Every structure is written in C-alpha cells, then in structure tokens.
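Researcher: I'm comparing several assemblies side by side, and this is the next one on my list. It has 777 residues spread over two chains. Same procedure as the others: predict the full complex and return the structure.
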Amino acid sequence: MTKNILLVGVGGQGTILTSKILSQGLLEAGHDVKMAEIHGMSQRGGSVTTQIRYGDKVYSPVIEKGTADIIVSFERSEALRWLEYLKDDGILILNEHQIQPFTVTLNLSEYPEDLIEEYKSKVENFKSYNAFDMAKELGNSKVMNIILLGSLVKYIGLEDIDWKQVIKDNVPEKFVDLNIQAYEKGYSI
Amino acid sequence: MKTLMTGNEAIARGAYEAGVLVASSYPGTPSTEIMENFSKYEDVYAEWAPNEKVAAEVAIGAAVRGVRSFASMKHVGVNVAADPFMSYAYHGSNGGFVLITADEPNMFSSQNEQDNRLYAKHAKVALIEPSNSQECIDYMKYAYNISEKYDTTVLFRVTTRICHSKTVVELGDRVVPEVKQFEKNQKKYIMVPAHSRERHPQIEKNLEELRKYSNNCPLNRFEMGDTSIGIICNGVSYEYAKEVMGDNASYLKVGFSNPLPDEMIKDFANKVDKLYVIEENEPFMETQIKSWGVDCIGKELFPICGEFSPELIREKLLGIKPEVSHTTELQAPSRPPVLCAGCPHRGLYQELKKYKNKAFFSGDIGCYTLGYLPPLEAMDFSVCMGGSVTAAQGFQRGNEMAEDTKYKAFALIGDSTFFHSGITGLINMTYNDTPITTIILDNSITAMTGHQDNPNTGVTASGEITNKIDIEKLCVACGVKEENIVTIDPYDLLATKNAIKMGYDSEEPFVIIAKRECALLKPIIKERENMKCKVDPDKCTFCKSCLRTGCPALQIKDDKVFIDESQCNGCTVCLQVCPFDAIEKVGE
C-alpha cells in the first residue's frame, strides 16, 4: 500500500532538506520512493510543497486529493491550501509560526484568524505547536524543519529507520548535534 | 547501488555513463540542474554558455570533432538555439549529439507552454521521452547510440515533473567510446544550398530508417493487461495512467516518439477495444495516429492546457472524482513569489516606481521580473530573454511617430540576461541612436535559477577562476558615451533617484548600472550576518511607508511594524524611506 506525505510551507523554510532526509531514509528501509517538488520562481518567498510517496511499487510522483496520510504544514496558514488532500483519517501536523506575505501587510489579502480552532474542528488527528520558537530556544531557528521531521516520524510510525544517521549524512558536521537535538525535540512532542 | 535522483541528476548521470566529454548549457527552470550536476563529474568539459544558441553550437562543434556532447536548456531556450538546431539536423552527426529540452506543462516558472516535441518533427530528428529517472539514465545511453548509428541529432524531451521528481535509480559504469576521427567533409559540414539539396533527401532516408527502428526498439513497448481499454502514453503521463489503471488496461508506452512506431500503434489499436492517447500539451501523437485512419480518443477528453495528474486521468477516464473529506471555508492568504529581503532590486524599483505615470518599463526575464508585482509595480512589459532593450526602442520610436511622449521608454535587464541577448539590443540602441535608458540590474550572478555563474562572475561552471567581462567597458564598446553611463549602488536610494532622473532627462542613449550582489549569495549572507534593521515601536506611527517597499521581512504586530530578524540583512531601504526615523541599523 502506497503512503503519501505532503510537506507544505513557504520558500526558504527548509522543506527541501526535510524531504531529502525523509526520502533517503525511506529508500534505505527498502521502499520504492518517489518525491515531487517544484523549484524556481515559486521558491522566492512563495508557497512551496513537496510530495513524497512510498510503498512496494510507486508510479506517480504526485499525490491525489483525499489521499495524503499526513500533511506537515511549516507555516500556520499554508495547510489551508492543501486540506482537501488529506485523507479521511489523515494526520495534520502544524507549525503555528506565522509568516505574513506582503499581500497581508499591504491589506491586499487577509490572514485568517482562529486558524488553529478551524483545523481542530476539521481534522481529528491534529497536532500543533510553534516549531520556530522551539528551534530558537535550541539556538537556531533554521532547525525548525528537523523538529517537524521528528514529529512526522513519530505520528506516521517510521521509528524503525535510523533517522539520526540519515540526518548526519545530510547536514554539515558542525550542525549535526543541533539537528539531532531538534529531531529528538520533535519526536518527544 | 540504488539511490534516489531527480530526472535532471539522472540525465547528467546518463550522459556521464554514456561517455559524454563536452557539454554546454544556459540555465533555465526546469533544466538547470542537468548542467549543475554534470559539471561535478571528473574528466568532462562542462560550461555555462551566455545563451542557448551558443550552448548548442559549442556542443555541435564537439560532436563534429567526434566526441559525444549535449546542450541542455529549458523549452523556450530551444527557440534561441533553433537556428543551429534546425540546420545541423541536415549535417547528421559524427560524435553523438543530444539536445535536451526541459518543457514545462503548467508553466511553474515559464512564460509559455510550448510543446517541443513539435521541434523534432520540424527539424526531422529523433525524439526520446523518458518517464522517470532510471529511464533518464538508460535512454541517454540509447540516445547516443541512435545519434551515431542513424546520423541524426536526438532531441531528448523531459518535463518539469520528470526533471524535479526524485525516483529510484541504479547506477552503471561509465564507458567512453573511442573518440571518432574528424574527417574533413565539406558536403556534410557546410550547409550551402548545393550541399543542403543533397543532404535533405538523405535526412528523409534516415527518417525512414528511424521509423523502422522505432517499431523495433526497447524504448517503445506493449504492457498488456485488460484489453477493453488501450492507452498510448509518453513521459510522466505513463506513470499517471499506470497509477490509475494498473492492470485494468493495456499500454503502449512510447519512449521513442519521432518517428512514431506506426506499425506498433496500428497493431496495438487492433488488440484493444477502446483506444486512448494520453499526452500532456499538444496532440502530437494523436494527430498523427488519426491521420492514419486509426480511431482514438485524445484531446476531446484530456486538456491541452496545464499538466496532468492521476486525479485528472481518473476523472476523465473513469468519471471518478476524488473523495474529499476535509474542506474549509477559510482561504489561505495569497502568497506569490516576492523579491527577497535585502534584494538589491528593491531599492531600484522603490525609486523607479515614482516614474510610473511618465515612463514605460520594458522588462526582461529574471528575479527582477517580480518588480511587476505590487507594491512596486514598475514593469509594463516582458516577452522573452533580451527583449527588454529592443522593445523599449520600438516603443520609443512608436512614441515619436505618434507624436506622443507621455511615456519615456526604459529597459530593465539583469546581468545574465544582458550577456544572454541584451548586448545586440544595446548595439542597436546606439547604432540607431535611440534615446532610451537601459538599466542593467547587476547582481553579479544568474540568480533566479539558483546562482549559476556567468561571464560577469569570473568563475566557470566547474568553479575555476576565469576572465571576467566588464559590463561598463562593454557598454562603452557598444557605443554608449562614457558620460551617459552611471553606475550606482541600489541600496543607496538618493544615488539611485539621481541616476534615474538623469536617465529620464537624457536625450541620448543612456545606461544605468545598478550594481550590488544578490543578497542570497553565501559569502554575502555571511558578510551581512549580523547586520539588521530594527523598528523603534515608540517612534513607529504605522504610516506603512516601509511596507510599500514590499520587503517580506517587514511584519505587523499590534498595529506596529516589526522586522523579522531571520530574514533581514540590514539593506536599510526601509530605514531610508521611513519619514519618522523609526528604523535604525544595528550590528556590523
């Protein structure tokens, strides 16, 4: 059975590194893996998504509506765009951190209030916290993505894979400890 | 060893394993990473060219010499390379030559949705289309064998979803075939009319041989399942169709698509009850298949515009809509791409926008195209690489002929785009003495595609130090008077304002070089790591002047502006526009 993971956020939040670590771990665990992302113009502060699919045999690299097993939203409002992709009993992990686009600061578009309440009322399997603040407490806001990875691993049940080793393989040596701490933090939530 | 690769990494790997020795490219989404990855291999020559025509010609020259070569580019890049591509098709090949085109259904980062399979038919060359990364590796090797055996160029066509999807691959060893001798042969290598008239019939003969090959090659294959539905498909559409139909349909997977495997297709049509052609964008296969009198369903069901998905195929083929269980009335705020915090273009646009009602801003292709968006909105036109300078001239001449000078014409072009195809426009500007102002936004890198070197950086594709071409001297050499060239730092708003005024007032060809490195370059990030701007909430009146620079680091909390430290690089554009001195610079 193919599993579907959706990472959504804002360009520059580290979704691409997260998906790289994730897909490498899944491959090493013996799964067929496909991952789709869009680079280029949409990266510059715009909405970004990465789609990861794994199982015995995967054909399409992209996910269909109503089939995502888990959505990890790196920014508070971005999950709204992708809620339709979550399957009936799917899990939503939300980073409560908010990034206002210029359309909001200039009153061209509205940033909805009561978002957390909305998600809570719509999604049974919902977990949210502020990964940005937690990462800052650890010493670097950039490891926010690895905190979210830790939670993702826990909630989708991928503990069998040695994620710490995969993290080591993918981040510069001097940041390994910080990233492992971030992973553990996310896993503990 | 099994590993994950994007299609672009895999194409580079396939070229490497096939023994390619020379490759040239101009960056363009979604093709850029092909050359980025190929340039990392040992024992190859890899270069960034100033444009796609140059890249194709360099690769062609290498193939004539007898080595295997490729040129890679985005779909619209093939338009730039079309001149050598079309005529070299008559030469055939010596060493194998592959032109890689990365097409972009749905235009994530492009100005049109052209389907470059049509170029293969137009130029009468072989066409190969892989469906995943493993096929990118394998088919590249086929491509070189085909190019050399059938004396043809191979057009290797991929799309965004192939280029940027990671799938599992198994790596092979590199085999470099013996470099072919170059034997002088004017009839093959000089396309004058007398030779071309002889070559054209030969190309037609080659095509017939390729047609036979197409019907007997492993790139085209049947996958027989339930025969009530037959699907002819290519590229990523094959993966989508398999995802949706599995064994409940039969497939003719087309990986070699010019010339099409006509006999296989007719045979397949006889084996199945209902025949569908599933291909993104143009009805390239469908039109040909229908012309043979074979009944099939294609574009009457599947759209020409945009990209496909398993969802779309499920709905069109089976009438099944996705089961959506989570919906919301709330809408996410619109979040278009934006000039980054600290982007040097912001300062320029901040001053330029004041001329909105008296200037025509002819734009170009790059990060700076984002200057069209609110709140800057200082761009009125953009068509293709290099088109800014020339279109501004045409606009100005139109002004003169219409005797209406309401809008003075400005051209806005980045450094990489200037080297790509802006130089000829600048020469035209001075040669025909057209009084426009060309602004070169020099951020010293090809930024939009993710920081590739160019003639302005002094570094090659493989990271070696090389000759750096001086833009200012180049402008002088192109005939712009030295007193009509002004170089400014766009972080300095006063200097920027003054330069724009000079450009506006000038009655001669005028150039402004707005020079400041891209804020995202690693050394620049490090250099400015501790430089920040900070809002004093007691002084902030929430007048929103700073917000109108469109900087994404500026956020709002409790009716005050605050600056997101993690984004800010202390460029001070907001500080300079604040009328209440509420913003200060901190850190060095």
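Model: For your comparison table: Helices of chain A lie at 15-28, 79-82, 102-105, 115-122, 131-138, 144-156, 163-170, 176-188.
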